[in-house]
């Protein structure tokens, strides 16, 4: 079929990966950072042009676009931005999100409506913030898009039809992954009036063709594109180790969670990606390392000198409060401290096990709703730490996969482009991500020991925060 391209327009840069449409082999790449004005959509086009400036898109037959999620572009009746883009990581909307949650009747009402409780990141919360803080600008808003929607529209020459995909739409707070429909009443609840919303097209659909005849696929958000690029499927979960953490898994249906702990995303294939987030992940490791006067590599070396269970110490890793479980005003705490355990290696081990057990709690939220988890893909720099790789199989109760470094988001976008180009009913069978594989028993922490450590953590958590997961 020739070659296809995947574009990843993140919050900071544009990355291009060009692949053979049949095999997925990477043949060309490009990269450019966004200019300083990262809330100006034109800066995204500028970095795209720079990333493609040495012929990366020459002879490409189709392009897939992935982009930063939950950003909001508000446009007037002429298609001109009303103001700067409101990006996904904009924390000004926290009060607006809480206000909006109450306006519909609380967490359960939102979970039933769209599979998510409003958070600051959701575009629906940004609309509420705009209506409350910039009412004149809010009155001018005639349509809204997310970054991937807008980029596709620009590549196509700003046609009359505006499109998005089910993956990106599921993160808006006004589209339901369960019913696969918009809730325009929630847009009006947030903004005060109706606006035009992009058409949601299928995973293998074509958004259109450029004036030069280049096919543009549906596109999607970064999380969905990364999952598609990794090649995850039913039975797979992905644990992302950033400062905070997230756990998502591929599932056959949307999950409605009245507590709001699970956010029900759709994926880029027609399946679903229920997500559970924690506020504390690698920040726990960094904090522990700083206290011990070392770095992450040094922390890993120390932890491996300890034994599973950290000589009886348990660190509850809620350093910034916690979202899962819902303990926003708590703090971290260290339990089981005895004279014989007061050694750097045991504290290092307790910090590492505390972080992983907190993420295992999030994974169990999904398991308890019937989500199959046989393999866990670990992403992020901390996934390469030997102590994490040793402890994770037993604590997660699953085979651990650590993918080799690659541009999985851009690869997922390219794979979607190849799918749309082929017109087939199934995605092209590109090779799965190359991974290091870790099983309990092969790493020194067998399954029984891992589960004993996990139970030690759960016991302390329940004693300290009884009913946290009730």
From TrEMBL:
InterPro entries membership: ATPase_NBD, Carb_kinase_FGGY, FGGY_C, FGGY_Carb_Kinase, FGGY_N
One of the GO BP terms on file: D-xylose metabolic process
The keyword Metal-binding is assigned to this record: no
Keyword set, alphabetical order: Carbohydrate metabolism, Kinase, Transferase, Xylose metabolism
Domain of life of the source: Bacteria
Domain Carbohydrate kinase FGGY N-terminal: 4-219
Domain Carbohydrate kinase FGGY C-terminal: 238-421
Molecular function GO labels: kinase activity
PANTHER family: SUGAR KINASE, XYLULOSE KINASE
Protein family (similarity comment): Belongs to the FGGY kinase family.
Protein name per Swiss-Prot or TrEMBL: Sugar kinase
Annotated organism of origin: Streptomyces armeniacus
């Amino acid at each position: 079929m020739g070659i296809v391209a995947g574009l990843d327009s993140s919050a900071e840069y544009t990355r291009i990966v060009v692949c053979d449409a049949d095999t997925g082999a990477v043949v060309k790449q490009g990269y450019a950072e966004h200019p300083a004005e990262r809330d100006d959509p034109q800066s995204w086009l500028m970095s795209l042009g720079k990333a493609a400036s040495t012929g990366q898109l020459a002879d490409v037959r189709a392009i897939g676009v992935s982009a930063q999620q939950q950003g909001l572009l508000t446009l007037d009746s002429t298609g001109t931005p009303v103001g700067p883009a409101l990006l996904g990581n904009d924390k000004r909307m926290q009060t607006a999100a809480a206000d909006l949650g109450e306006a519909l009747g609380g967490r359960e009402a939102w979970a039933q409506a769209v599979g998510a409780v409003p958070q600051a990141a959701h575009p629906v919360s940004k609309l509420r913030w705009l209506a409350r803080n910039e009412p004149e600008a809010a009155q001018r808003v005639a349509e809204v898009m997310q970054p991937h929607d807008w980029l596709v529209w620009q590549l196509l020459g700003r046609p009359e039809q505006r499109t998005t995909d089910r993956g990106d739409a599921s993160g808006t707070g006004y589209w339901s992954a369960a019913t696969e429909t918009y809730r325009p009443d929630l847009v009006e609840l947030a903004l005060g009036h109706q606006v035009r919303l992009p058409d949601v097209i299928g995973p293998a659909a074509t958004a259109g063709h450029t004036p030069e005849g280049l096919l543009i696929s549906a596109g999607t958000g970064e999380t969905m594109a990364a999952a598609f690029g990794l090649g995850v499927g039913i039975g797979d979960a992905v644990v992302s180790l950033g400062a905070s953490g997230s756990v998502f898994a591929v599932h056959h249906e949307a999950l409605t969670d009245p507590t709001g702990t699970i956010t029900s995303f759709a994926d880029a294939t027609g399946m679903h990606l229920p997500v559970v987030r924690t506020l504390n992940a690698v920040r726990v490791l960094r904090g522990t390392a700083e206290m011990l006067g070392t770095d992450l590599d040094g922390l890993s070396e120390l932890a491996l000198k300890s034994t599973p269970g950290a000589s009886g110490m348990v660190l509850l890793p809620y350093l910034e409060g916690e979202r899962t479980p819902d303990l926003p005003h708590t703090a971290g705490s260290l339990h089981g401290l005895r004279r014989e355990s007061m050694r750097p290696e045991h504290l290092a081990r307790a910090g590492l096990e505390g972080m992983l057990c907190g993420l295992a709690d999030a994974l169990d939220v999904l398991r308890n709703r019937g989500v199959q988890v046989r393999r866990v893909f670990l992403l992020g720099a901390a996934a390469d730490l030997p102590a994490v790789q040793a402890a994770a199989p037993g604590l997660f109760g699953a085979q651990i996969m650590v993918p080799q470094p690659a541009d999985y988001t851009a690869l997922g976008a390219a794979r979607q482009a190849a799918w749309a180009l082929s017109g087939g009913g199934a995605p092209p069978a590109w090779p799965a991500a190359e991974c290091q594989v870790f099983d309990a028993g092969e790493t020194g922490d067998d399954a029984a020991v891992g589960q004993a450590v996990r139970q030690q953590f759960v016991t302390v958590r329940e004693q300290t925060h009884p009913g946290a997961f009730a």
